[in-house]
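FAQ: What does a multi-protein file look like?

Like this. Sequence, then tokens, then the next protein.
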Amino acid sequence: MPNRTAFFISDGTGITAETFGNAILAQFEAPVRRVRLPFLDNVDKAHQAVRQINHTAEIEGKRPLVFTTVVNMEVLRVVKENCQGMILDMFGTFVEPLETELGIKSNHRVGRFSDVSKSEAYHNRIEAINFSLAHDDGQSHKDLQESDVILVGVSRSGKTPTSLYLAMQHGLKASNYPLIPEDFERRKLPPALVPHRKKLFGLTIAPERLAEIRNERRPNSRYASLDNCRAEVSEAEAMMRREGIRWLSTTTKSIEEIATTILQEIRPERLAY
């Protein structure tokens, strides 16, 4: 059972507080219950959050951990003056020293998604997501040349989630294209991919893990059989070696690790954060 509660509070979505806080908490093996409290954009909401945090402190008999990215000074003051938790103010820790170092004041913008209607980067990100959805699993060859990266590999090797992660997190137009038995019989790349060889990045996976994943989708089928998975993975990896395609195994890697490796390899000029 969790022995401590961590609150992630923000006057925006709370995603930054939660991401940063979880990265820190991952360094400790203590079980933690996590609670996100987003959109604390006025004093009333701040008082409500403080009451919830203090109630948790009374029940658990321990100070909750409070990760905050609140930039509204009035709201932050309510939290700091009344909260019984251990407050970890990430903006205060990093923004204030940077203001001193740079000699300028920060814009105190609430979150990365503020003023989205005016943000070119946000619209580019949405365009990238739509592009990646339209070019998922080889659905469309149209405008394939606009791809920042084209992921190739056997079915269920992690191409779709990686494509969407690259689009959502980094604004990249990521297509993905399955390698199928017909490609292995021809011993050639699908014709649609040949002109874009420099943008290709391969994903592979251990056959045993692939069989487990495919059996969840189509149990007891030839598609999911271990022998078939071994044959497809072997042929796909052989093709990648022949064609000089950069590739990695997704077997033990998270989507974040896979995406980071791809970014290091392809180094796209257009990259959003």
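And here is the next protein:
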Amino acid sequence: MPEKTYDTGLVLSGGGARGFAHIGVLQALNETGIYPDVISGTSAGALVGVLYADGFSPREIMKMMNSTSRLHYIRPTIPREGLLQISGIERILRENLRAKRFEELKLPLYVTVTDLNNGKAEYFSRGELIEPVIASASIPVLFKPVIINDIHYVDGGVLDNMPIRPLENRCSRIIGSFVNPVGYEETVVSLTQIAERVFMLNMSKEVLEKKERFDLFIAPQELKNYKILDPEKAVEVFDLGYTATIEKLRDPVIRQIFGI
């Protein structure tokens, strides 16, 4: 069997504000001595992934992205291509990212987007950095598509919310962080709520299809109680990701796989 290109790969799902759990996962992994060599992310996973790949620690990423205001990230707009603007996230990236291109990152990164024109998932890993990351986080209907080279791109979670594909057969071990468990939702009345709920249900199917393909799979069920467009519970969500990872890493089988 040929030698793997990377030792440890990390796949980060989409999930809006639930993506703060990814930062907790990274914090727990690093504290245990596990450092990913390559990252593949969709949507919120792409946002966390690009900052980590750029050399920021989980605590630094948490401080950078944490906000007490939903409007820090998104603002209402006139409905044409999207109901909301994603300007806050773009500002965070433009003000903090040191790398301007994928090739300048400290770790290899794959960013998943959905090509609306051709109806397929695409994985960016080269070239200009920020536009693909913004596209990866642009939930359809809620946010307008991002146009790159005349192609309209939206959230990668539409077609691939757990983008393990770029890492399979290239890593000795692959870790997955999934932040989209689906539970009962009592109120789904506004257009924004409906769009959010439909998108969440579509993304949740990934956990059933792919979880067995990971050596370590982290999916905190408590996240079903948190909205994907509400960053005000960021610290709680971070703690859920951290705690779930620490519990998984107590498993003797997992400890043997990762040599801890």
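Q: Is there any per-entry metadata?
A: Some entries carry free-text notes. For the entry above: The chain is about 35% helix and 20% strand.
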